Amino acid sequence: MMFSDEALVVLRRLEDAGYEAWIVGGAVRDLLMGNAASDIDFATNATPEQIEAVFFDEHTLDVGKSFGTIRVVMPTAVYEVTTFRAESDYRDGRHPEQVRYSMHLEEDLQRRDFTMNAMAWHPERGLRDPFGGERDLHAGLLRAVGCAEERIAEDALRMLRAVRFASRFQWKMDPSLRRAIQAQHERIRFVSMERCHEELERMLTGEHPDSAVALLEETGLWKSLFTDTPAGDDALLFSVKEVCSPLLCIVPPTPALRWAALGFGPSFAGSTEETAMRLSRMDRLLRKLKTSTRLRDEVRLLLREVHLPLPETRADVQRLIGRTQPQQYQLLQLMQAASTVASASSHERNERMAALSRVEKQMHEVEQQHLPVEQSDLALGGAELLAMGMKPGKRVGEMLAWLLDQVIDGQVENTVATLTKTVQQRMKKGEKE
């Protein structure tokens, strides 16, 4: 196995201080699979305080110190160094009642979730694999360490991690692990919604979001997560049958696009009421998952606009950009993907794709020619209107909106002189009326 020189320096520093140290978890798994290791974690028999002492001349973070973890900040990466642990009972299906340190690597590996994550490696001692993780890797099998029911009962988040790993690697889930999740899926309510969102988003932005959705349904987790109530009753926000899986797979893997694709529906909405319903359901789901306001706003914009008729003129494109920037190209990507997989017929698909090619070209023209798309692009603004005698209030905004429409439609030029004259004429006409 090949780990960076810097990672090996961390290991050697611990050993030179008299402690045992191993590289563990996902880094070992990834290298055995032929992938580059991203985050590299260490397990050691040194206590958190001793770890801090070893790396006294480096910057350390004690964000996980109560659970035995110290983060060591090296020049090119941050490494998590954790004391060997043997945890006791879990108080809430998520966190251990207490953390008991151990002096034995095997005891630490035994408390981990899946066999593929319960391996350790040392440059001289080689691979330590007491639970057959390497064998499961080659077999494409996701299997719990020891008793699956116990591992899931210890930490309910492991259910979502199991779905994520199985879909990511396209592995079979061990039958005992699948049964354990199906039996305990309602316990996902013990997990913070922020953590659930994190796991779901990693699934959705992975290479096989359709597999993740199918596994969420098969295990019962979809029912427990996609309802309006925490009890997990039948009041689903939307069912798996309403998910357009091909769309979910072909849109670029950004969070906003993938969440929007999840809530898009099986086809283009047939009415404004249907569009509003889809927006409302997705918004309620994202609120339940306690996502950021920014993500909710981005998803809402994409879902609203993708179901509207396509712009027909360059002026329509200018207004589209004004409503949607800086997401206009994300929206275009969603429109193109949806047109490919959700059109009612090949004729409709061809028509939509041709129209979208025109829209994309016009978008570039608008940008290259610096054509106005919003009020801030006008040659005069609110301050100038007030200087011309308008009173502060909504009439200023209404006047700017009207001016923007006039400029976009080509009725007036976007110059200070022309806009000033246009405003004066409109104000004079308003006084007469």
Number of helices: 21
SSE string, helices as H and strands as E: HEHEHEEEHEEHEHHEHHHHHHHHHHHHHH
- Helix percent reads 40-55%
What average pLDDT do the residues reach?
92
Low-confidence stretches: none
- Spatial arrangement of strands, main beta sheet: 3-4-5-2-1-6-7
SS-based class: alpha+beta
Q: How many E-type strands?
A: 9
N→C terminal distance: 83 Å
Structure in a nutshell:
β6 (120-122) and β7 (126-128) form a beta hairpin.
Which secondary structure elements does this structure contain, and how are they paired or packed?
Layout: H1 5-16, E1 21-24, H2 26-32, E2 41-44, H3 48-54, E3 59-64, E4 69-73, E5 78-83, H4 105-110, E6 120-122, E7 126-128, H5 133-139, E8 141-142, H6 148-154, H7 157-169, E9 172-173, H8 175-184, H9 193-204, H10 209-219, H11 221-225, H12 245-250, H13 255-263, H14 272-288, H15 293-306, H16 314-324, H17 328-342, H18 346-368, H19 382-387, H20 394-408, H21 416-432
Parallel strand pairs: 2-5, 8-9
Antiparallel strand pairs: 1-2, 1-6, 3-4, 4-5, 6-7
